[in-house]
Amino acid sequence: MSVLDATATTLRDEIAAGRLSAVEACRAALDRIASVNGELNAFNLVDGDRALDRAKEIDRRRAAGESPGPLAGVPIALKDNMDVRGMRTTASSRILEHFVPPYDATVVRRLERAGAVIVGKTNCDEFAMGSSNENSAFGPVHNPWALDRIPGGSSGGSAAAVASRCVPLALGSDTGGSIRQPAACCGVVGLKPSYGRVSRYGLLAFASSLDQIGPFARTVADAALTLTVLAGADPCDATTANEPVPDFAAALTGGVNDIRIGVPRAFVTEGVDSQVRRAYDEALDTLRRAGATLVDIDLPHARYAVPVYYLVCTAEASSNLARYDGVKYGYRSGAAKDSLKEMYSRTRDEGFGPEVKRRIMLGTYVLSAGYYDAFYLKALQVRTLLRRDYDQAFERVDVVAMPTMPTPPFRLGEKTDDPLQMYLADVFTVSANLAGLPGISVPCGFSSDGLPIGFQLMGRMFDETTLLRVADAYQRATDWHTRKPGGPEGPPLRP
Amino acid sequence: MARRIGVNVATTFTHAAAHMHGLHFAFCILHYDGVVPTTLTIADVERIAALAQLELTDEEKHLFTRQLADILHYAEQVQAIDTSGVPATAHVNAAQRTERDDEPRPSLPIEDAMANAPDSLPDAGLFRVPRVIGG
Predict the structure, then answer these.
(1) Which residues of A are identified as catalytic?
(2) Which of B9, B51, B59, B78 to mutate: most A Cβ within 10 Å?
(3) What is the fold of A3-301+384-482?
(4) Alpha carbons A377 and B14: distance in angstroms, whole number
């Protein structure tokens, strides 16, 4: 039993009570990362010296009688698309391989103010574009439950780091499922807050109307604790909402007698693996037995969510990634010295990987004259219809339940030659981003091969309180989230 | 009295797109005939790559021609949906307006902002680039 088997909440309490030091917790995390990262490739960067300095400072403040903060001494990892001043941010891209940000993301300032200890940056799909982590310029992350399987994407390193007990908490970003889907693949909790709940200042932009930062944890209670620290309006991000931030962890009462759960049966049919379907039905049954009421709902436009998502996100990406041009920061091609235009195009061709180029190309196409109305504008109109589907459903229900992913985690390399098949893995997650809704994935079982399966709940805009209460009630009734890769002893990962 | 700056987030993204295609890459705007093709040619991919400032290899051109055609064909299903009178959602918090006084505040020092530039003259506050006109 390692200190890293403790939840973030317990670790915080132990450190606050003086039974464990922040330095001991930090050393345990660094040791664990050193022992498993060779197999997992979950971290792009580990900054042990900085982390230990911060941990010493937490211990010093506690010894001096100062208030240590709600995450004091808890080791945390950040997806490598969030800026920490002086610590490299690469977005797992060659074009930013040596970029050292001159400022902190708002989430970083909030985490460190709360006493969290950042240990490093996690591997991800390049610029958060992918569903399998295979688009990283630094190689794929391996799933801790089966090293030949994808960890999910795009925040695969964060999910694998939490699942393998390197850290009790990690941050990811979710544009179309990039927190919830890897959480499902790695058997951990992943929360995408409502759009505008958490500041995006210092998050590298992929699709600005969809991107949202959120936590990975092993329990819903830890995710709730972290969200309370991260959430709130920020003058540096005009899209953050002026919504009150409750103590999300305090609202986890365990009761769901008053809860009505929407079940979109017609949508959860074709293409869903039978084992995923069974786990989903059992999770619904567990919540029904706990006191919730199941209500059939219809989401007639949900089947268009994937095409709408890939038209919208690529359009926004083509605009956002125009800034990587070899002038202000990042890689510049040495091959083109004679003209600016050639320098731009050579830099971008050498610096970006295939999926990023594919999405820039698709986004440029759908925004170009003659195709704008037929693709981009049309997608924005269908996005409105999809939002209306959810508005109508939430008049009758408190949360909507779906699988997180239609299949268990597939094999590395299985879908890399067919981007469209890869995109279809996002069928159940992209709706929440298009509609701005909060969503969470919790572990709900395992396939016959021992691969994790996730159960997804979506809530009303800014009603994370109800969403977290239902997800927490599910964890109180089940023990899937207590299992760990490699069996009760944890390491080694290989059987 | 300080001027008020208004940020209407509903229009941010169409403006961002206009920035890329209308200003930053103004020299390579193309006009299509408005008919959406079911197939994509290598020439189409070359035109899109020029718009996006990407210099693709021949292998990439062939690969993207096939893959983008597949994806666009799949995405065409949205065109069958009746959206007459339906407004566009470019952004879910579009009703929110954020205003502040236009007053100077401390910001990133120039040397920090330029520290990552591949080629710059920080003392002069300049980024150095290859020849802009001709070539």
Answers:
(1) 79, 154, 178
(2) B78
(3) Amidase signature (AS) enzymes (3.90.1300)
(4) 10
